[in-house]
Amino acid sequence: MQLIHENMNLTNCTRAVEFILVGLPPVGRMEGVMHAGIFLLYLLCLMGNGLIIVMVILDRHLQKPMYFFLSNLSCIDIGHTTAFIPKLLVNYLSANNSICFYCCITQLFFYFFFGITEFFIITLISLDRFLAICYPLRYATIMTSAVCLKLSVAAWVVVFSYVIGQVILVANLPYCSSNIINHFFCDAGPVLKIAGGDSHLIEALSFLSTIVVVMSSLLFTLISYLFIIFTILRMSSSTRQQRAFSTCASHLVVVCILYGSVFFVYLRPTMKNSSFGVIRSVSVVHTTVAPVLNPFVYTIRNNEVKEAIWKALRKKPSSFP
Fold first, then answer.
1. Is residue 173 within 8 Å of 196, Cβ to Cβ?
2. What share of the chain is helix, strand, coil (3-state, %, to 5)?
3. For the whole model, what pTM was predicted?
4. What DSSP assignment string belongs to 27-80?
5. Cα–Cα distance between 203 and 183 in angstroms, integer?
6. Span 221-233, mean pLDDT?
7. How far apart are CA 215 and CA 77, in angstroms?
8. Collapsing DSSP states into helix, strand and coil, what is residue 237?
């Protein structure tokens, strides 16, 4: 392992320029099968989310606020999984679990950048559904294309500004005692566990900000859906009720998967002292299965998306003159 020598805090510190990732949770002799499964899930994630993005761009009937935010969510899912799955597969094929220091920091940044942005977009989808169902007459004048774009850009910019500051703090910690990360990618908890120096401030800031982002997003989503459910129950038409419930049910499934796994993995005041065996197992579901489910959950019961896909598949290529 390559080492660089630097003077840190007036003491000699030999700092590792690469880390060793422990890898996926042990599954006996099924390691190859697990990596193959993750590769297939990654391909499904790219195809499913890529299809949503392409259809929203090409089909004018899908150029509505809800589908605009869904395409944002698809971009997030693709970016979130691409931040670590290709490196995970390359390491497995090369039988080398190393990752360079700056690659690790970059992976950490993009993982949390896309991960936290997802909460904001989920919240915007909740807002969109609340306005569409509870205030249908004013919906078109409130959720204009310009407003949707501003809300989306604001979410991405705010998260970028927050995450880049946190990652810079993590990158400036000394990493002298160990270079073995007990995870299959560079996550905050395992990275801080091997960091030297005092990381209590970073952990406190990270925990508090996670509480604020996750809990405020969850609270807003739950309140929105309480109003939505009350409004649906007051509808006179059973057909309208069924259509509204069908639209909202898919969103609630995604919300349960996302918040459930995040509560378990990240809402811990002391990440350094956490046991990462079970966390790695839960992270596999959170980071590989959920991004694949999102496009299918949102579209499988959505007639507009299905009709747009079938129309695109049936469209014959124009003949050359």
1. yes
2. 75, 5, 20
3. 0.83
4. -TT-HHHHHHHHHHHHHHHHHHHHHHHHHHHH-GGG-SHHHHHHHHHHHHHHHH
5. 18
6. 86
7. 21
8. coil
